[in-house]
Design goal:
The chain is an alpha/beta fold. About 50% of the residues lie in helices and about 10% in strands. It has a five-stranded mixed beta sheet with strand order 1-5-3-4-2, covered by helices on one side. The N and C termini lie far apart (about 60 Å).
Length: about 260
Amino acid sequence: MKTTNQRIPKTTDYSIFEMHPLNRPLRKNRNRLVASMMKYGFPPSCAIHVRHNGGNKLLVVRGHHRLEIAKELKLPVYYIIDDTPFDIFELEGDSALRWSLGDFLFARARAGDVECQKLLEFVNKHGISSGAASALVGGYAIRAPGSGGGNGAAGAIKRGAFKALSLDFAKKVASVTDFCRESEYPFATSSAFVVAVSKAIQVEGFDFKRFMQKLATHGHKMKKRSTKEEYLEEIEMIYNAGHCKDRLNVAFLANNLSKSSR
């Protein structure tokens, strides 16, 4: 049976649309979606969701990537107008095309959330992932990649309840990753390394000044690793370089610290 599109309006007048102010930024990597739309066009079943903006424009609530690609390919855009009031964060949080944590952080910051603005500034300045940075800045337990369970900070950002409580500690960790970035170490902002640094710094007796001095002279000996545990061994090697008497079992103590904080 042939279907009809009579009930879904379409247009090539892209000027009638504007992006919702709280939506996530447009992604650069859209290759799959571009290829799909080049092959199939803009099907009515993928109509974008818009609402009136109180003037003469339609706010794009969902589908702004499809709209931008349609503009590039000069395709007609199908759209559905729905002015039902809702929280865009709740709507997209349960979407099949789920927002990333970075999307929520960007949107919350743009919506005027001061705490998320502080976090986003930290992320942009230091190049640390949104997940690791939110745990550091928010004072949550930071976990190794793949450990599961989340760190609590992500949920706080999504709910609009995030607080930047540990900026001083986060900046301390960032001073290590910044040095490694400037030295062009390939692992500088990897999640496993960031976790390892955060754990090492919390070890009782760990002399941060000494570590930074050792990092400056011996950091080039560090290798790219896969796990937090392996990076902790690297950190211990650097920390104890040239010391025979006052060596510190950084890896062992940091791993015990991780176990006790679960």
